């Protein structure tokens, strides 16, 4: 959008946590990092310089955290960046922040934002990191329940040539979910009335089924389909996201995180872990509403991030041991572990 540019995440740029005898964060310089991490830092500095060159930027860098300081220092002394800063006309402040200082922000589910949910739950568009696949079968005569149907090319979120779709995407990012879904309905109704498609207006809450019934009006009208293809892709992305099982789980996560914040204030970590224990179920005992192993890892990262300093003791060790045992059993029972679990094991 005009205000926000999403770049691919950098999975290989995770700061090493200080271990016994390792360099402390204060004395961390590029030379103290392992070779792979050094190469990753140099690669990201080169990429940032390329991006700033394309934008004609002369940056002033600020850093929060030890790895961020290393990257900012590398960028400051990078030969090509020094030349660029001498000639660039636009000024910018760049703030680097270590992700490890805000893990709770990365794994929390506080956002009431439709764009965030669409980007989180729909499958990635092949070859892209920040766009998703929108199933377009609804708009065709080929009605199939097969989600892996590859005959029909997927839609996506990037619609630079469709002003209505661009405006709708802005509302997905800037409005609360309920308001954004109402905007989706408004745009669809306007598009249908421009094409003289008979639309049954209904007020009240917008449901995915209602949006879908409006989309079906365009199905047999090739001219209308062509005129509003970008808009229809975004509304289909909305419908598929709202119907996605991960979206209802998002609300469960949010409720659990809120409960957790209250509980942690009132009780100690062991009792919170004991509450979590019966919810860890193996693959063959889980229903679609139960948390998966991945979900538990996310919850544990959130818990340990928000609780801060933890008083260690026998009770905590016993509770942690039980959670570890249950998680290891659940991970080992996974018939097809997702990529993150394969990486961990």
From TrEMBL:
Keywords: Signal. Residues 1-21 form the signal peptide. The keyword Signal applies. One of its GO terms (biological process) is vesicle-mediated transport. InterPro entries: Sec1-like (IPR001619). This is SCFD2 protein.
